[in-house]
Amino acid sequence: xxxxxxxxxxxxxxxxxxxxxxxxxxxxxxxxxxxxxxxxxxxxxxxxxxxxxxxxxxxxxxxxxxxxxxxxxxxxxxxxxxxxxxxxxxxxxxxxxxxxxxxxxxxxxxxxxxxxxxxxxxxxxxxxxxxxxxxxxxxxxxxxxxxxxxxxxxxxxxxxxxxxxxxxxxxxxxxxxxxxxxxxxxxxxxxxxxxxxxxxxxxxxxxxxxxxxxxxxxxxxxxxxxxxxxxxxxxxxxxxxxxxxxxxxxxxxxxxxxxxxxxxxxxxxxxxxxxxxxxxxxxxxxxxxxxxxxxxxxxxxxxxxxxxxxxxxxxxxxxxxxxxxxxxxxxxxxxxxxxxxxxxxxxxxxxxxxxxxxxxxxxxxxxxxxxxxxxxxxxxxxxxxxxxxxxxxxxxxxxxxxxxxxxxxxxxxxxxxxxxxxxxxxxxxxxxxxxxxxxxxxxxxxxxxxxxxxxxxxxxxxxxxxxxxxxxxxxxxxxxxxxxxxxxxxxxxxxxxxxxxxxxxxxxxxxxxxxxxxxxxxxxxxxxxxxxxxxxxxxxxxxxxx
Length: 546
Description:
The chain is an all-beta fold.
């Protein structure tokens, strides 16, 4: 094995040990898999793949071998393996290590919140290189191997829309497009991810000084808090640290803030920083002094990192305590350290509504997912409509089921199944929350046969009857149809033989301030054409769905 070595003896005339690499178990391995190196590894503290540090480094007790995991963010074209020690000495391989890229599988895409984000769940989804929504590239917020979060803040989306989400991966996998993903109104409630709260009376501090968990008052409530009384040193000397081996799962937070409560006794000040164990760090002031009062610090998680690219989906928090400007002592209390939904002021509780709307993104009129609500329909003993027809020919437009009408041969030209219609009671619906509600539905006709579909709607105890007609010929494909419920002129089918019917017979539009009674779908022959049509996803949305 040929290696290159680097030393720096310009400051001290000391014969520092230089690591040596004798053998590498493999120069081609899957990302995150472990490789083994043999050599001389005295005081080795890091192994790099190019300039990216390896994960989970383990040096043997005799310092003759080590194991390290291939980092998922290394250059996929390859890079030398670099071994460095605590004395600043390092060696690298002459040959490049070239990683093997695993395949990415997308299993689920969550609903998309307008102006906020959505999740992509699967296997190796952190290796997605591009995600688009209706052809527009979206930014990644956080990522883990099983779940990545993407922002749609810059996209012009409206609740109730259906969009397509497409993917590209590092391994150039053929990932199917996620079609018809729902866009919903955003709703954010307060949540938090606790890193340290000391409720169990223990702490993870390792270092100098007197470290303990005490009980005391915090904003009127008795809590456990971490207390450190340590000696004061210069800027660069560390008195100790507190390290978490868990990666905080912030994927459920929309706007994560790094939040902690700190107190320094009167006349004392300290300096401490957060690290992410990947070479990045951030400071929380120099000569930190709260005058003996509890102070809540709450800052955006992604801001003010130094040292490299910060990944909120992979970092393991590490608090490093130093005592610059602290004088002789570094006295410090911490009540909690957590990641919160937005800026925390001490008053929020989990579940509190923060921002967003409870307005529904859609009202489902006929979704056909509840099998019991849509039984088979017969005409003179013949099956004419069912959830079970055409299921081997076409996939649902949305969800898992659709409803199909077929021809039993009993109807004449322009005849219809008037006694075999399907309908939905609407009096209890929340149409009043929409300014311009649209009715949308998907239709799929058998090849070469134009269909005749009537959507009949009722208001004022079914005295006002308005209809919309559709004549789909989709040749076995799904097509969508929609109209404004209150802002479209419609054909009036009110019964003019009654007094109220005469009153309503001239109207072309519904009253948006009164509830609808019912929406009905009637399937007819178009002249002499055979009936064969499937219906799916009849919904009401704010504005057009498609």
